[in-house]
Amino acid sequence: MYRHVYYLLFVAGLIGFVHRAQGAESVAATTASDRPNILIVLTDDQGWGDLSLNGNKNLETPNIDALAATGAQFERFFVCPVCSPTRAEFLTGRYHTRSGVFSTSAGGERLNLDELTIADTFKAAGYTTGAFGKWHNGMQYPYHPNGRGFDEYYGFTSGHWGNYFDPMLEHNGKIVRGEGFCVDDFTNKAISFMQRSVKSGKPFFAYLPLNVPHSPMQVPDRWWNKFKDKQLINHHRDPKREDVGHIRAALAMCENVDWNVGRLTAKLEELGIADNTIVVFFHDNGPNGSRFNGDMKGRKGSTDEGGVRSPLLVRWPQKIKPGTYVKQIGGAIDLLPTLAHLAGVPVVSKKKLDGIDLSTAIINSDTANKAIPDRMIFSHWNNRVSVRTQQFRLDSAGKLFDIKSDPGQRMDVSAMYPAETRRLTTAVASFRADAMADFTRQDQRPFLIGHADAQWTQLPARDGIAHGEILRSNRFPNCSFYRNWKKTTDKVTWNAEVLESGLYNVQVYYVLKKENVGCRVELTFKNNGCSKVVTKYHDPPLIGAAEDRVVRRESYVKRFIPLDLGTMQLEAGAGELTLTVPEMPGDEGIEFRLLMFQRILQAE
Questions:
Q1: CA angle, 103 as apex, 100 and 109 as ends, to 5°?
Q2: Mean per-residue pLDDT, 40-45
Q3: What is the percentage of the chain residues whose pLDDT exceeds 90?
Q4: Would you call 175 helix, strand, or coil by DSSP?
Q5: According to CATH, where is 3.40.720.10 located in the chain?
Q6: CA–CA separation, 99 vs 189, rounded Å?
Q7: How far is CA 83 from the centre of its chain?
Q8: I need a labelling partner for 264 at 20 to 30 A (CA). Which of 75, 393, 507, 522 fits?
Q9: Taking residues 230-256, what's their average pLDDT?
Q10: Which fold has domain 2-373?
Q11: Nearest Cα to 558, choosing from 545, 542, 539?
């Protein structure tokens, strides 16, 4: 069912439902070879205040600051309170509540398959498309980046990762080993992608969703040594809440990001394409800790100003005047229509976008800033909704704040502006009735296996349900594994759907103590299965603690290795996929991290 919905909508979107972005007339040439390249850098858990550009003297971010000096900077730009919703809104131009994204893990981060993405738009226009880093909008194809318009993907699709040095990653679905610090690695891969695109003569759309300063707080010595004993100058509005060690690590990670942004912009110059490349930089939510954030209220997870305000920097030397300052409020939902219009390409979608084209505000800021339309941007998380206009924010409790005169949200002015309070309260009710009409936190979507266009399918422990005495390594599931497999009746199950019948090689990524060698691991789906006796022990230690700059909350990880379970015939249809250890000569079975399915291609 899901496969057919995806194909029908994707084909319809590409062929029959082509709409140009709303707004001013096209500013770009009509041929693909003349169109601008697009490079988008999105950071994870970096607050608005984590830039020297925004007055933070605790760190230096000259390369990011230079994007504002040589391009456009938005005064107020808004994203979501947490990771995957922001990514969904950027990808679709629509509020995340419309697209099936209701959580940050265990399937709730998946973007509905009837949504078309910004990568679909640029790919249809002749761009080569690539994403490098943390995806966080679905793992199994066609939720996978390669199924959402990206020709190339390198990184991890989960919500957070357990180790940032030489980690297990994937390249177009196949498991690979990362090379060094992952942020540097992702940047290297993006640079290689841009170089190949230039050689091919095609414009590129490169998306670099970096995974820092999200925890675990790991960063190379080069940056940590600068901050490990640093005395802070700028502080949170309530300094007693500060965790100084965490702040130092976050700032070091942000300076590493800045260094990598410098490498990207230098490479654009070296390739001779800087003038005709649109570079975009923004964050996915507020800071992941109480630190300097311009006296704003709220942090990550909050629908207040500090939880959803992000910088937005846009540089395009060929079209955007240096030092452009945009006073019009904007949001992640606006990036798809805005970038499509700047590039002169049609937006591929049959669905109404919530975002608007802000290209006029960027290109003609002087004129646009004199006549700013009053719009509303809604922020949602955990059933809390706030709404922002050019002047006001109505918070999730119904309090009204005049952000122009009270940017810290310290005084409720609802009694002073009763008409505005009623107007925005009504707007929130309408948002709930419209944008949240189909919103649910009860996910009935199965985990998909065996799409015809995908050779590889991953099913991690994250997405499985443990039965019996099996325990998850941590309450945060994204990069966790299962342990304490004590009984032959214990099992891990997935609500699965096989999209295409076929024969698959199956691997299970495991850890096993020496005294438990000889246990049998078995996987079944419907009436078919495969199994293997484990003859090789593999008992590595937990890793991550030595690299952490502060103690983490998430799971530590291990170097899991694959065990070939053999081949398995999977029949199309829905059912329960079950992993068991039916024979256990020792006192424990495997520790389990991941299932990997590889389609066996049949000779024609």
A1: 60
A2: 98
A3: 89
A4: strand
A5: 2-373
A6: 29
A7: 6
A8: 75
A9: 97
A10: Alkaline Phosphatase, subunit A (3.40.720)
A11: 542
Question: DSSP characters for 361-380?
Answer: HHHTHHHHTTS-----EEEE
CATH architecture of 447-599: Sandwich (2.60)
Q: Convert the pLDDT of each residue in 73-97 to its tens digit.
A: 999 999 999 999 999 999 999 999 9
Q: Which residue has the higher pLDDT, 444 or 471?
A: 471
Express each pLDDT in 101-140 by its tens digit.
998 888 889 999 999 999 999 999 999 999 999 999 999 9
- pLDDT bin (cut points 50, 70, 90) of residue 33 is low
SS in 3 state form for 459-472? EEHHHCEEECCCEE
DSSP state of 135: -
Whether the Cβ atoms of residue 172 and residue 455 lie closer than 8 Å to each other: no
CB 394 within 8 A of CB 425: yes
Neighbour count for residue 80 (Cβ, 10 Å): 30
3-state secondary structure of 577: strand
Distance between CA atoms of residues 560 and 154, nearest Å: 20
Tell me how far apart the alpha carbons of residues 217 and 251 are, in angstroms, rounded to a whole number. 10
Residues 369-375, mean pLDDT to the nearest whole number: 82
Interatomic CA distance for residues 148 and 211, integer angstroms: 20
Q: Is 101 within 8 Å of 122 (Cβ atoms)?
A: no
* Residue 357 CA neighbour count, 13 Å, CB half: 24
The continuous run of DSSP H or E covering 251 comes out as helix 244-271
Distances (CA, A) of 549 to 14, 115, 228, 232: 47, 39, 9, 17
Phi/psi of residue 507, each to 5°?
-125, 145
CA 592 – CA 460 distance, rounded (Å) = 9
Location of each CATH 2.60.120.260 domain in the chain = 447-599
pLDDT 10s digits, 164-177: 999 999 999 999 99
